[in-house]
Amino acid sequence: MHELVADRFTANAIPAGLTSGEAAALLERNGPNVLPHRPPVRLWQRLVVQLRDPLIVVLLIAAALTVITGDWTDMSVILLVIVVNTTVGVSQEVRADHAITALSQLTAPTARLIRDGTQHQMPAADVVVGDLLVLAEGDIVAADATVVDAAALKADESALTGESEPVDKTVSGDSVVWAGTIVVKGRGRAVVTATGSASATGRIAGLLDHAVETTPLQRRLVDVGKLLAGVVVALCAVVLALGLLRGQPTELMAVTAISLAVAAVPESLPAVVTLSLALGARRMSARHALIRRLPAVETLGSVTVLATDKTGTLTEGRMVARHLWTPTAEATVTGSGYGPDGTVLADDRVLGVGDLPAMTELLSAAALCNDARLSPPGSADGTWAALGDPTEAALLAAAARLGLDRHALQAELPRSDERPFDSDRKRMTTIHLLPGGGYRVICKGAPETMLDRSTLTDDPALLARAADRADRLAHNGFRVLAVAQADREGELPPDADPEHGLRLLGLIALFDPPRGAAATAIASCRGAGIRPVLITGDHPGTARAIATRLGIIEAGDPVVDCRDLEGRDLVAATVFARATPGQKLDIITAFRDAGQVVAMNGDGVNDAPALQRADIGVAMGERGTEVARQAADLVLADDNLDTVVAAVEEGRRVYANIRRFLVYGLSGGAAEIAVMLIGPFLGLALPLLPAQILWINLLTHGLPGVALGGEPADPDTMRRAPRRPAQSILGEGLWQRVVRIAIVLTAVTLGVAVWAHHTGRPWQSMAFFALGATQLAVAIGSRSRLRSWANPMLLVAVGVALVLQLAGLYLPPLQELLGTRPLNGIDLLIVTGLSVLGYAATRLDRILHPSPNVAHCDSRQPQ
């Protein structure tokens, strides 16, 4: 037990704190006061994750086969694709982690401690159990601690509990301040009881599962890779067998089968995926959203449910006075934040000082019975800051909007005494000296304790009317304060109780206003078929009010109080109030178990487990806590919820481009296999040579295929409902489109080859050019916006590929390498004209078989 000394602020004896030696020994034994962090991912681990992709595995196998056959050129091309894809993926993850580290900071960087009987400023990491913390307004609490001295001490615990109201802290056995919370009012001292992972913040961080789950995109691509691997191996084995049965040389057919395997597998798919995600990440970064993992961009495009916290996410995380009520009049306060910009309106008339004496009297009293301060803008953004309790700061802002000068009021009525707010009395009282002698008592507090005959002398009917108005305001989600005062002669007796015999001035209704972009973001989600869900630790009335105001629910819709979750169908609910961190986790899990793709948006420590359990976690970067950022996949550096909606569009664009490439790449690969399988039955012994197959594959799946990943979003992207969570990436008619386009490619190629063969033309060279040119025409036809220059790289890539395809016919070195012969002008013109059928077939298919477009679906109900 530490030695007890007297504190200069109170007569109560409190611990004197540790000595430096005791603290050093405890630090050595228990470790530093830091939160558990995800262990760093080593470079080799990142490489292994990239190389385990099924399509990369197929390419590695193909590279090994080319080594066996001595095909060093093809091996080099395949390895180049693997190296580029892996490098881009790893470098993006490393850059994102570095950026997160720059954003991150210790929850409480420093702490004031009593060591060796003297106050010191110490790194928060050096705080140990038994230390005596010194707390004041604006301090971030460094560790869990029991309060042993308090003077009007209040802490903002919204990051931990989700409750937006500051919590009163008194000297009692169960009064505790928690690590990571913020002192918003008063002063005090507290003895540390838990640090690091043992603190409340650390225990919540310990709920995080550091294992990274695969995203919906990754799971779908795994399925595609397995399917392609099986089909390609089987078909290439058939080609090999048919060739051997026809008496073709074994080595030639082995090389042909391997070439077909390489051609049939869209080896550019990993590069297309990476490019699409990287472009999405870059666009999001420009909009102040940091992507921690590339697949997170696409995952947002898969989202069917957007679950969000309230305080600091949907709301600004600060209080604003909105309604004023007096026995004779009512008024509305306009404006946002803590600045003086705004007005007080009564019957659509802007009020000034003295226009309605009752309003002036009410706000003057609220400004005097107040310990907060407002700080003018210190930067170009023009934002006023609050020092002290956010509720009291909101009262000062309302007084300023009426035109009251708080400093002039204080000079006229200086404070001589006070009784600070505490949770038992639920009120605060200040005593002010009157200019002509005597004193004024001003009291503000909760209506349930203020509107009582033991406190007020007003008529019972008036008190009943005030109580009814307070109840209606509270039901609409407002925090209501009652303000009363009385002027008395003489001096306040030392043993007098000033909190009686007062006159009611009125009521002030305050709330935490929604963010400006929140309603627009919610409406955009609904338009895109995404169901918004609110999960908050706040009161049900407050949750209902904000959810109704933002359009998450309709007036009268039920709100689930999480104190009574047993037996409820969680997936059927939309708004959850009084949710603990564990219950948030249960709610997210229930939605995921129901087959939904869930994005969780939050900023507090209490949100972190749910952020990680969701398919994608979205954390606030400015107001968000370190634990929340570490648990998230996407960090919004500007805390703008509207950026989440932009990310959804970006994710849908990425997914659409991947599907666009799959149609292009798989139809081309399927056509190459079909030409090799059907050709011999039409009198074409070996329709294409191995080198020709690889050349076509390199040109078509190379630059043009990758450039398809940069296509802009379709104009109706955000008017479509989300795709079904269990849907295959080849679903929704995609594989049928692949087959239809492949048939056209095959027909054009074989038609040209058979006609040329029967007319004595260089049929193999004509088939070679026809197959390549028709595939390039499919690439042009696959564009999302035909007349747009949003993706000029695709046009450039197709042009370069076409020139190289022609070079394969007319340049002697390439003629020798590929086994081709030049075509005369007429033949070239005929083949080029027929290749346009690839473009026509692609556009016609999009018209006759459009992608499903379930616009403006009702996302209020479970899907």
Give a written overview of the molecule:
With 863 residues, this protein is an alpha+beta fold. It is built from 28 helices and 28 strands. The protein has a 9-stranded antiparallel sheet, with helices on both faces. Helix 3 (54-69) runs antiparallel to helix 8 (250-264) and helix 21 (642-678) runs parallel beside helix 24 (734-758). The longest helix is centred in the last third of the chain and has 37 residues, at 642-678. The radius of gyration is 35 Å and the shape is elongated. The relative contact order is 0.10. The model is unreliable at 1-12, 102-108 and 853-863 (pLDDT under 50).
Query: Percent helix among the residues?
Result: 40-55%
Please tell me the overall pLDDT: 81
Gross morphology? elongated
Strand residue percentage: 15-25%
Q: Please give the radius of gyration in angstroms.
A: 35 Å
Distance between the termini: 60 Å
The SS-based structural class is alpha+beta
Work out the helix count: 28
Strand order of the largest sheet: 15-14-13-12-22-21-20-19-18
Number of strands: 28
Strand count, sense and closure of the main sheet? Answer: 9 strands, antiparallel
What are the low-pLDDT stretches, counting only 5+ consecutive residues below 50?
A: 1-12, 102-108, 853-863
What's the topology here?
Blueprint: E1 4-6, E2 13-15, H1 20-30, H2 43-51, H3 54-69, H4 72-103, E3 110-115, E4 118-123, E5 132-136, E6 144-156, H5 158-161, E7 167-169, E8 176-177, E9 182-194, H6 200-206, H7 216-245, H8 250-264, H9 269-286, E10 289-291, H10 295-301, E11 305-308, E12 320-325, E13 330-333, E14 344-346, E15 349-350, H11 357-368, E16 373-375, E17 385-387, H12 390-402, H13 406-412, E18 415-422, E19 427-433, E20 439-445, H14 447-450, H15 460-475, E21 479-488, E22 503-511, H16 518-527, E23 531-535, H17 540-550, E24 560-561, E25 575-577, H18 581-593, E26 598-602, H19 608-613, E27 616-620, H20 626-631, E28 634-636, H21 642-678, H22 690-701, H23 703-707, H24 734-758, H25 763-781, H26 792-810, H27 812-818, H28 825-848
Parallel strand pairs: 11-23, 11-26, 23-25, 24-25, 26-27, 27-28
Antiparallel strand pairs: 1-2, 3-4, 3-5, 5-9, 6-7, 6-8, 6-9, 10-28, 12-13, 12-22, 13-14, 14-15, 16-17, 18-19, 19-20, 20-21, 21-22
Helix pairs in contact: 2-4, 3-4, 3-8, 4-9, 7-8, 7-21, 8-22, 9-21, 10-21, 11-12, 16-21, 21-22, 21-24, 21-25, 22-25, 22-26, 24-25, 24-28, 25-26, 25-28, 26-27
